[in-house]
Amino acid sequence: MSVEKVDTLIVGGGQAGVAMSEHLSKCGVPHLVLERHRIAERWRSERWDSLVANGPAWHDRFPGMEFPGADPDAFVGKEEVADYFVAYAERIAAPIRCGVEVKEVRKNVGRPGFRVETSHGVIEAANVVAATGPFQHPIFPNLVPEDARLLQIHSSAYRNPGQLPEGAVLVVGAGSSGVQIADELVRAGKRVYLSVGPHDRPPRGYRGRDFCWWLGVLGKWDAETPGPGTEHVTIAVSGARGGETIDFRRLAAQGMRLVGRTETYNDGVMTFARDLGQNIARGDANLMSLLDEADAYVARNGLDLPEEPDARKLDPDPECVSNPVLELNLAEAGITSIIWATGYTVDYSWLKVDAFDDKGRPKHQRGVSVEPGIYFLGLPWQSRRGSSFIWGVWHDAKHLADRISTQRKYLAYHAAKRETEPA
Ligand SMILES: Cc1cc2nc3c(=O)[nH]c(=O)nc-3n(C[C@H](O)[C@H](O)[C@H](O)COP(=O)(O)OP(=O)(O)OC[C@H]3O[C@@H](n4cnc5c(N)ncnc54)[C@H](O)[C@@H]3O)c2cc1C
User: Fold this and answer.
1) Cα-to-centroid distance, 402 and ligand 1 (Å)
2) What is the fold of 4-136+346-420?
3) Most buried in the list 189, 244, 359, 384, measured by CB within 10 Å?
C-alpha cells in the first residue's frame, strides 16, 4: 500500500495550525493540517461556558480578518472565537483534516523526513510542525488525596456554578482563569475562598485605552523570552461583563475570602503561605508601574488622552488581607469542592525525536527545534510575551514558514545541481 506523502505536516488545528497553514500557503509550501477533533476545539469545548476573550475584538484576532459583526471594543465569547477560526480556515482554504489524531512521529532511518502514525494511517513528511497548543495538560497538584470526600476539578474541567455540589468552594490560583471562575461563583451565591499567589494585574483600561493597546505601544507584548530559571508570573485580567480591572480588594468586599498560596493539606486541614499581603502589594505595584509608563508615554508623545487619577486609588486592605487565614479546616469551612486553576503543561510524548531537554521541554530557537525538520508553534514565550496569544502566534508562524521555505530552497538547489552534473 502506498504511503501518503506531504512536505510539511502541521499537528493541531487550533489558531496556531490555521496561522501556520496561511503562511505556508503564501510561501508556496505544500502542507496538511491534522486535527484530532474540530478546528479550535479547545475554545469550543475545553473552557468554561461564560468565557469571553481577554482582549478586545480589534486586538485578539489575526491581521487578515476582523470578527464578523462584533463591536471592535467588545470581548467576544469563546464560541465566536472558535467560529472565527473555522471561518478563517475556510477563507484561506486551509487543508485541514479533522478527526485525525497523530499518534507518533519518528525520524526516518537513513533518509530525511519523518514517519507519522495517525489514527487513519501512516503519512510521510519532510517537516513536522507541532502546533498542539501552549496549554495541553492540566497541572493538578497532588496535594489533596482522592478519598478526601471533596469534588476536585481543574479549571479546564469547570463549566459553570451548577456543576458544583452545595457548599463552599476553594479556588486555587488567581490568574485570569482562577479569578474569573471565583468571581462567577461568588455572583452565583457561593461562598468562595481564593488562594492568591504572585501575579501581575494590569488595568483593564487607562486614559481611554485598553491595556492591550498600552502593552502594545509600550512594547511589552514584544518583550523577549525571559531567561531560564525566571519565575513565571501569572497575569490576572478579565473581559467578563464588558471588561474590568481585577481588584482583589473589591472582590473581597463583594464577599470573596482571600488566602495566600496553598501550601499543604493534612487530615482535612489546608495551610496557606503568609504571602497574601505581599502578593496583593506586588500586583498593585505592577498596576502602578504600568500607569506610570503610560503617563510617561502620553507626555512624551503629547497625546490628548484624558487624565484618570482614580485609577491609582486603592481601597484599604480588607480584613482577610491584613489578618490572613493560614490554616483552614475544609469541612468546618463548609468547603465541598476545590477548583485547581493551577495552569497547564505541554505533552509531546507522541513526538519521538531528539528535540527535548531532560524535563521534556522543547529545545528550540523561536520555534525552530534542534532536530532539523521539527518545528514548534504556539509555545508560551516562544519568541516573545505575545507568542501564545491569537495575534502573537500568527507572527511566529510567519517566521517558521519563512524558515521552512528557505530550507526547501537549499534542498532544491542541490537537487538542481545534481541534475546539471555530467553523468
Ligand atoms: C482559559 C483561557 C483563556 C484564553 N484567552 C485568550 C484570549 O482571550 N486571547 C488570546 O489571545 N489568547 C487566549 N488564551 C491563550 C491561547 O490563545 C489559547 O490557549 C489557544 O487555544 C492556543 O491556540 P493553539 O492553536 O496554540 O493551541 P490549541 O488551541 O490548544 O490547539 C491545539 C490543537 O491541537 C489538537 N491536537 C493536540 N494533540 C493532537 C494530536 N496528537 N493530533 C492531532 N491534533 C492534536 C487539539 O485538539 C487542539 O485543537 C487563553 C487560554 C486559556 C487557557
Assistant:
1) 23
2) FAD/NAD(P)-binding domain (3.50.50)
3) 384
Highest CATH level, class, for 139-340 = alpha beta
User: Are 4-136+346-420 and 139-340 the same fold in CATH?
Assistant: yes
User: How far does residue 388's CA lie from ligand 1's centre (Å)?
Assistant: 8
**How far away, in angstroms, is 77 Cα from ligand 1 center?**
15
Q: pLDDT (tens digit, 9 = 90+) per residue, 155-182?
A: 999 999 999 999 999 999 999 999 999 9
Q: What is the pTM of this model?
A: 0.95
Query: DSSP per residue over 197-265, as a string?
Result: -SEE---SEETTEEHHHHHHHTT-TTPBPPPTTPPP-EE--B-GGG-B---HHHHHHTTPEEE--EEEE
Question: Is the minimum distance from the CB of 12 to ligand 1 under 6 angstroms?
Answer: yes
Query: Does residue 137 line the site of ligand 1, with CB under 6 A?
Result: no
* Model pLDDT, residue 233: 85
Q: Which three cell numbers stand for residue 63?
A: 491581521
The residue contributing the CA closest to ligand 1 atom 34 is 12
